[in-house]
Amino acid sequence: MNTINMKNLGLSGSLLDEARSFRDLYVGRVLSQSKDLYRVVTERGEVAAEVSGKFRFDAVTPSDYPAVGDFVMVDRDDDEGGNAVIHRLLRRKSLFVRRAAGTAKEEQVVAANVDTVFVCMALGGDYNLRRVERYLGLAWSSGAVPVVVLTKADLCRDLSERLSRLEAVAPGVAVVVTSSLTDDGWQALRSYLGPGRTVAFIGSSGVGKSTLINRLVGRDLLATGEVRDGDGRGRHTTTRRELVVLAGGGVVIDTPGMRELALERADLVRTFADIDDLATQCRFRDCTHKGEPGCAVARAVADGLLDPGRLAGYRKLCKEALYEGLHSRQVEAEKMAMMFGTKGAMKEARRSAREKNRRRQGY
Ligand SMILES: Nc1nc2c(ncn2[C@@H]2O[C@H](COP(=O)(O)OP(=O)(O)OP(=O)(O)O)[C@@H](O)[C@H]2O)c(=O)[nH]1
Ligand SMILES: [Zn+2]
C-alpha cells in the first residue's frame, strides 16, 4: 500500500497538532463535494464520506460544513464498511464564501485553505481595472494572498502602459504576465506552488484559467479517476477533480463554485463600472447620487448618457446588500472592514502579503 504524503497536500505542523488531539480519527483533505457526499483523501487513499449526525446537529451556518480544501477528521481511512464519517473540521486559514445578497443563511463555502489566489484578467479587449479591484477585494477578504495574472499577453501591444495603470489600483500585489504561446508565464505561476501550497483561480469566463490550470496540472486533470463506491466495487467516473495534487508538489483548487463566484462578481462589475467611473467626477467623494449638488451621475442621467434603469438597478443592489447609501467602493470597503474588523487589520494583512511577495522575489 502506497501512503500519501499529507504534508504535500498542505497538512501543516499546526494542523497536524490539531489533528493529533482527536484520538482514533484520521486526518484527511476534502477533494470534492456533491451535496452531502464528500471525497476525502487520507494518508492511505481516497474515501467517500459524510458528516456525522452530531456534526449536522452542531452546525449553525452552511460555512460550518466542510468544503473543498478543508482538512477534516474521519473515522476510517478505507472504504471498507461504507462511507467514512466526518466528525470534525480543522481550523481554516482562508475561506471563499458566496453570499446571496443580504442573507447570511444562504452563504456557500466554495473553497477553503487557499494560500494564493490568482486573480486572472485578459490583456485583450476587456481590460477593466475596476474588475481587478473587486476581485482583489474578494481575494483579500478570503484570507488568501492575491497575485494578479494578466493573460493573453500575445494580444496586447501596450503592456507597459497597462502594467503601470494596474500598479495604481493594486499596489504591492505581485503581477505575473502570461501567454499561452510561451512558457515563461505559467512557469512563474509554478513558483507559488510547491509541496503543501494551495492555489486557486478567479477571473471572468474566457480569460484563460483552464488553459493555465491544464498547463500546471499536465495530464492529471484530464485523467478520469478510478473510485470505488460504498460496497467496494471498482467504478469508473469521469467527474473532474476539484482539488488536484500536482506531481511536482502543490495543490490546485478549481471548483464550479469558485468559477461562479467570479461570474457573479463580473456581473456586478458590469453593472457598476460606468456608474463608478461617473462617480469619480461627483463633487462630493461620498456622493449617493440622490440629489446632491454637483452629482455627475445625476447629470449623466439628465443628459441621457446614463440609463435611469441602470442607476435604479445599482441602487437596488446596494440596498439588497444592506449597504444602502453607500457607493460601490464604500460597499467594498465595508465588506473588507467586516472581514478584517478594522482598517488597521486590513492594512496589516496587505503589508504582510507585500512582505511575502518581496521575500519570494528575493529582495
Ligand atoms: N491568444 C490567446 N488565447 C488564449 C490564451 N490563453 C487562453 N486563450 C484562449 O482563450 C479561450 C478561453 O480560455 P479558457 O482557458 O477556457 O478560459 P477560462 O478562464 O477557463 O474560461 P471559463 O472556463 O469559461 O471560466 C480559449 O479559446 C483559449 O485557447 C493566451 O494566452 N493567448
Ligand atoms: Zn453623485
UniProtKB/TrEMBL annotation:
UniProt: GTP binding residues: 151-154, 203-211
EC annotation from Swiss-Prot or TrEMBL: 3.6.1.-
Residues in CP-type G domain copies: 104-261
Lineage: superkingdom: Bacteria
A GO CC annotation given for this chain: cytoplasm
InterPro entries: G_CP_dom, NA-bd_OB-fold, P-loop_NTPase, Ribosome_biogen_GTPase_RsgA, RsgA_GTPase_dom
Residues forming coiled coils: none
Leading EC class: hydrolase
Cofactor names: Zn(2+)
Keyword list, A-Z: Cytoplasm, GTP-binding, Hydrolase, Metal-binding, Nucleotide-binding, Ribosome biogenesis, RNA-binding, rRNA-binding, Zinc
UniProt subcellular location: Cytoplasm
Location of region: Disordered: 344-363
Domain EngC GTPase: residue ranges: 112-259
Single annotated GO MF: rRNA binding
Textual note on the cofactor: Binds 1 zinc ion per subunit.
UniProt KW Nucleus keyword: no
UniProt xrefs under Pfam families: RsgA_GTPase
GO biological process terms held by the UniProt record: ribosomal small subunit biogenesis
Residues reported in the UniProt entry to bind Zn(2+): 282, 287, 289, 295
Basic and acidic residues: bias regions: 345-355
NCBIfam families noted in UniProt: ribosome small subunit-dependent GTPase A (TIGR00157)
Binding partners and assembly: Monomer. Associates with 30S ribosomal subunit, binds 16S rRNA.
Function: One of several proteins that assist in the late maturation steps of the functional core of the 30S ribosomal subunit. Helps release RbfA from mature subunits. May play a role in the assembly of ribosomal proteins into the subunit. Circularly permuted GTPase that catalyzes slow GTP hydrolysis, GTPase activity is stimulated by the 30S ribosomal subunit.
Family that this chain belongs to: Belongs to the TRAFAC class YlqF/YawG GTPase family. RsgA subfamily.
Name the UniProt record assigns to this protein: Small ribosomal subunit biogenesis GTPase RsgA
Organism: Aminithiophilus ramosus
